[in-house]
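Hey, quick one: can you model this chain's 3D structure?
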Amino acid sequence: MSTKKQASSKASLEIFCHIGKKLKTEVVEASDPSLKRCKELVAALQEESDKNTMTVSILRRSNIGIVLGKTVKAIRRHKRDSKQADEWSTLMESCQRLISSWKDAAVKQESNGKDDEEEEDAGEHALPASVSMYRSRLTKQNKEMHKDPPVLPPAAITIESKTYPLPKRDKESGILTFQPGSNESLQKLIKDFHPNLTPEEILRAGSFGGTYFRPITSAVTNVRYNARDVLKDTVHPSWIKGLDHKTQLTSSTYRPQMNKFGVKCGGSLGMW
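Sure thing. Here's the predicted structure for all 272 residues.
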């Protein structure tokens, strides 16, 4: 995004935030809102919308769509006992047209995959705030899209507050059983989770052709991950003791010969 366009977008965001606050206090939360003041605020919204195309980023960060929706409900409520019901109705229709135009602009932006300004807004390291932002990252990083538009990754994950014992292995089947923690949302998932290999066994079998810890830029976090740092931070040294890091762990090239069965297998990141 150009510096000029970025400045214009920032100024527009500030205007929508300011008007939104005024609408909330002077109309939505007011017991007897002024028709004249409400007209002025809606006119200001219309003027700004005419000058600058509404974007997903501005809608998300200003919440102006939500505020204007609440304004419509407030107008509908106040016009019932007002002698100026017709004027309130006309104003309500103006609000609804604005909301509709913003929705259309957002849908068009997402369908076109245009999300440069959201990338600027989100900062260097952040989860994608919309499907279009995620798609933009995948495209720029030349990542495979198994589905287009892609499905957003979960916004958050649940982590147990304490550490539990290592899983027990069934002597006959070889499957591993984990002890469920105290988090109810995870208990069923953990009870159904029965892998037959540990992380160490997977890595030593060459399941990823030596590429699992290759350096990557994540389209999810927008962070460039260094192989050496990731190994140090996430892998117990005993798991990879004796393995050649360059060919068995951090290679950018899949080597079938590293695989226990000498084949290339597994789904792509796009599929996962």
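One thing worth noting: Residues 116-122 have pLDDT under 50 and may be disordered.
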